[in-house]
Amino acid sequence: MSPHRLKAPRWSDGDGGREYLRSLPVLTGTAPAFDTDDTPAEPVTLFIKWLQDAVEAALPEPHAMTLSTVDSRGFPQARVLIIKAVDERGWHFAVNASSQKGRELSANPVAALTFYWPGLVRQVRISGAVINDGAQANAQDFLARPLESRAMALTMKQSQPLTNGAELDAEIAHAHRKLDKNPKIIPPEWISYAVRAEYVEFWQGAADRRHQRLRYERNDERWDRRRLWP
What we know:
Blueprint: H1 3-7, H2 18-22, H3 43-56, E1 64-70, E2 76-82, E3 85-87, E4 90-96, H4 100-107, E5 110-117, E6 122-132, H5 135-143, H6 147-154, H7 165-181, E7 190-204, E8 212-219, E9 222-228
Antiparallel strand pairs: 1-2, 1-5, 3-4, 4-7, 5-6, 6-7, 7-8, 8-9
């Protein structure tokens, strides 16, 4: 074992792992240049630039995001999804309407998205109302998914209790038979949503904690920009 590992603190239940967690390094990435005074008038262009920076830096799954919704009790719920498109209408992703997140979005059509690229010490936070992209976009998104993804979606069982693995295998096999008979089948429960952002915040970290934060806030059809304290 290396000397470095020998000196590392061990997890202690006595302090809830505080010493152990504080010993872990943070803000270890390399931040690119970011001038908050030289940014576009709207957030989409800057977001696409930051996403492309993450791709070019070969960061893993740079298009992954945390989708946060609100359940029937008012509790926040979060999970990681893949962004499907970004344009002037918003940030697009797809869900099964019968899933937990689908039901939550139907009952309370608002969401928050969080992107985090630790290799670049960057994150982006987005919040706003969600809008159904319409039947054509729903179909296009579903048909573009890999075969196994479509089969799983066709089980219509997401978020339901699972009794055993045999039940899962049987439902997936049944879904594959459906796809064999009709490769273009599209479940009506499949919905492509767009988050029409009201707020978009760009955050770039620094080891000295002089983080840079730039917030865009929608003001009718234009955006107000302001720098925030770290």
